[in-house]
Design a protein that fits this description.
The complex is a heterodimer. By secondary structure, chain A is mainly β. Chain A is about 0% helix and about 55% strand. Chain A contains no helices and eleven strands. In chain A, strands 2, 4, 5, 6, 9, 10 and 11 form a seven-stranded mixed beta sheet that branches. In chain A, strand 4 and strand 5 form a beta hairpin. Chain A is globular, with a radius of gyration of 13 Å. By secondary structure, chain B is mainly beta. Chain B contains no helices and twelve strands. The termini of chain B are far apart. The chains are: A mainly beta, B mainly beta. At the A-B interface, strand 4, strand 5, strand 9 and strand 10 of A face strand 5, strand 6, strand 10 and strand 11 of B.
């Protein structure tokens, strides 16, 4: 069974630009979560989608948004990039997204904002 | 609010030594799940174990073992006879389910960098 895939793996942008990251969950999984990992803040939850609906959102500004498609693939968008947005963005998939679920992570997209 | 504390920032051991990674958590939930993930230099978080709050049995999987103690809110991870390939950052995490809307989010500790040297 293929794992979680994320594209692109690496991205370099400049301040003010916007970026879209993509995540394809494990086949059959309907829940997709996004996390941001930085040296200073560690791993922080961004949001979670299940069946195209955002069910849970972390404490991030509105510049961070996401969506999920009918095939469970998810995209995350960051607008008006700031230097502090440089991070590893990890996507996780789960079958149901409930507390009993195990989340399996992809390799991440490393975003550098110059 | 939920919180996970991994007080050990970095641990260095020599190969074949045993090493224990500490994890202390805080939650008001009576039902919750604890996880350990491994993050090698490649960056991907690799799932190691999940434990629910009602199951305090220790678990062993090969060289890995986990000790869950609700009385001290701890979920410690021991690697026996460590190997160089065990070098990675290890994260302890706690699941949280909102009261409404369902869904799940993980609260992570800050991670422990384990270095195993020859």
């Amino acid at each position: 069974k293929a794992g979680v895939t994320q594209t692109p793996r690496y991205l370099i942008k400049t301040r003010g630009q916007q970026v879209t990251l993509s995540c394809s969950p494990i086949s059959g999984h309907r829940s997709v979560s996004w996390y941001q990992q930085t040296p200073g803040q560690g791993l922080q939850f961004l949001f979670e989608y299940f069946s195209e609906t955002q069910r849970n959102k972390g404490n991030f500004p509105g510049r961070f948004s996401g969506r999920q498609f009918s095939n469970s693939r998810s995209e995350m968008n960051v607008s008006t990039l700031e230097l502090g947005d440089s991070a590893l963005y990890l996507c996780a998939s789960g079958s149901s997204g409930g507390a009993t679920d195990t989340q399996y992570f992809g390799p991440g997209t490393r975003l550098t904002v110059l | 609010a939920q919180k996970v504390t991994q007080a050990q920032t970095e641990i260095s051991v020599v190969e074949k030594e045993d090493v224990t990674l500490d994890c202390v958590y805080e939650t008001r939930d009576t039902t919750y799940y604890l996880f350990w993930y491994k993050q090698p230099p490649s960056g991907e978080l690799v799932f190691l174990i999940r434990r629910n709050s009602f199951d305090e049995q220790n678990e062993i999987s090969g060289r890995y073992s986990w000790n869950f103690q609700k009385s001290t809110s701890s979920f410690n991870f021991t690697i026996t006879a460590s190997q160089v390939v065990d070098s990675a950052v290890y994260f302890c995490a706690l699941s949280e389910t909102p009261f409404t809307g369902g869904g799940n989010k993980l609260t992570f500790g800050t991670g422990t960098q384990l270095k195993v040297e020859l």
